[in-house]
Amino acid sequence: xxxxxxxxxxxxxxxxxxxxxxxxxxxxxxxxxxxxxxxxxxxxxxxxxxxxxxxxxxxxxxxxxxxxxxxxxxxxxxxxxxxxxxxxxxxxxxxxxxxxxxxxxxxxxxxxxxxxxxxxxxxxxxxxxxxxxxxxxxxxxxxxxxxxxxxxxxxxxxxxxxxxxxxxxxxxxxxxxxxxxxxxxxxxxxxxxxxxxxxxxxxxxxxxxxxxxxxxxxxxxxxxxxxxxxxxxxxxxxxxxxxxxxxxxxxxxxxxxxxxxxxxxxxxxxxxxx
Amino acid sequence: xxxxxxxxxxxxxxxxxxxxxxxxxxxxxxxxxxxxxxxxxxxxxxxxxxxxxxxxxxxxxxxxxxxxxxxxxxxxxxxxxxxxxxxxxxxxxxxxxxxxxxxxxxxxxxxxxxxxxxxxxxxxxxxxxxxxxxxxxxxxxxxxxxxxxxxxxxxxxxxxxxxxxxxxxxxxxxxxxxxxxxxxxxxxxxxxxxxxxxxxxxxxxxxxxxxxxxxxxxxxxxxxxxxxxxxxxxxxxxxxxxxxxxxxxxxxxxxxxxxxxxxxxxxxxxxxxxxxxxxxxxxxxxxxxxxxxxxxxxxxxxxxxx
Lengths: 274, 306
Ligand SMILES: Nc1ncnc2c1ncn2[C@@H]1O[C@H](COP(=O)(O)OP(=O)(O)OP(=O)(O)O)[C@@H](O)[C@H]1O
Ligand SMILES: [Mg+2]
Fold this sequence. Notes:
By secondary structure, chain A is an all-alpha fold. Chain A contains 11 helices and no strands.
C-alpha cells in the first residue's frame, strides 16, 4: 500500500462542518476547554503585569509593559494553538472514538482543517479577551504595537503552534496515551528558548544557537524591535514564516506516516481498549 | 461479481499470525456470519476492511474497486457498528449522530436520525450525554450510527453484545428489515449461536486465521451427524432388554430409569428405535430428541475435533 495517495487529500466541506460542530460542542460542554482560553492566559497576564509594574517603578526601563505584556499575550496564542491540536485529538482517544472516526471516510486533511478552524476561533477569542483585560488592568493597548505587526506575529506563532501540536498528535498515534503528557509539557521546553521575555543577545552562546532555529524567537525579537523602533523587522519575520510553513507541511507528512505505522501495527484498534 | 472479495489476506502481529491467507467472497444482499473462537481473526478481518489495520499482504475488492486505492470513496458507502467502541462521551446522542451524519454526507440528516432513534427505540435518549448511557443503550446508539448512511456494506462486530432479550429480539428484526428493504450486505460476528443461525444465510467458520468452512447453518450442523434421543421410563421398568437393542450407535444409562440413545444415522435408526420402545411394554414418561446445534459444532471446531 502506498503511504499516501491523492484520495487522502480529499476535501468535503460537509465533513469539515461536522467536525467543527463536534469541536464546538466539546468546547461548550467541557469546562476544561473553556478554562483553556481564560484561566491560563489570565494567570500569565497577572504575573507579567505585576512584574512589569514592579520593574517600571524601580528602573528607567522604558516600554516595560509592552515588553512583558506583549510577550505574555503572544505567547499564550502559541500555547493555545499548540495544545488545542493535542487536546482535540486526545479527546477522541479518551472517549474511544478513534475506531469510529478512522473507520469513517474522514481524511487527515479534513481533520486538520477543522482543528485549524476551531483553533483559530479559540485563539481570536483568547486574544480579544486578553487584550481587553490588559487594557482594563494595566491600561495597556496591545494594538499600539501595530495591526500589521500583530497579524504577522500571530501568523507565525499559530502556524508554529500547529506544527508542534501536529507532531505531538503524531507521536500519540504512534506511541499511545502513555505519552499524552507531551501535549501539555512541550510548550514549557520551547518557551525558555523562544526568548519571550528577554532579548536573544543577552543569552549564552549555546542558548542562542538553539533559540535562533525557533520561529517563535524571531517573533519575540521582532516584538521588541517594533516596540523600540516602531518598525517591523521584515526579513527575519518573513524567513520565519516561510520556514514555519515548510515545517507545517513536514509535520503533516510525519503525521500521515505515524498514522500509517499505527495502522500497520494495529494500534488504532488496540487503544480502544486502553 | 461478488460485492466483497478478499484474497489471501495475511496479517501478523509480532509472533502472532492473526490471518493466514484468508479468502472470502460475499455476495450483494447477503447476511453473512463470521464465526470462530476468541482470537480466530474475525475482528482483524473486519478492521482491515475498515482500513483501521493495514494487512501484510493480500487484496480486497469492495463494490468492484480495489480497496487500498479507493478507500475514502468506498468507506462512504459502508459503515460499522462494533462493540466496545464509542463516540464522544461528553456529546449527546443527537450531537454524535449529527457529527457522523455530516462526516458520511447524509442527506436530510435530522429526519434520518429521528427515524433511526425510533427504530432502535431510543428517541428519549436523544438529549442524554453518551457517557451517561447504560451499555445496552450505548450499543443501540452505535447501531444507529452504523445505519446512518444507508450503507451498502455493513460490518457488525459483536454489535448485539449486552442487549436485553427484548431489545436483542427487536434489534434482530430491525437488522432483518433493513437488510431486506435495502438489500444491505451485512458481515456479522457474534458469539450468540442462536442469533447467528437466525440471521445469517451463510456462515464462515474461522479458526486461527483461516477459514475452515463456508456454508449455511443447516449444512454446517450436518458436520455433526448424530441425534440424541433421551427416554425416561416409569419407575421399576426393566431396561435390560432395551439396552441390548442392536443397530443403535450407542446406548447410555441416563439416571435410574432413563436411557440415552445416540443415533449416527437418524434417518435409518430412529424409526426402528421408536417401534422397539413402544413394543417393549415399559411405559414411557418422557421423551426428548435433540439435534446438534450450531453451538455443538462450534465447540467441536474450537477444540479441533472437527
Ligand atoms: N491490535 C493488535 N495488536 C496485536 N495483536 C492483535 C491485535 N489485534 C488482534 N491481535 C491478535 O490477533 C489475533 C486475532 O484477534 P482478533 O481480534 O481478530 O480475534 P477475534 O476473532 O475477533 O476474537 P474475539 O472473538 O475474541 O473477538 C489474536 O491472537 C489477537 O491477540
Ligand atoms: Mg473480535
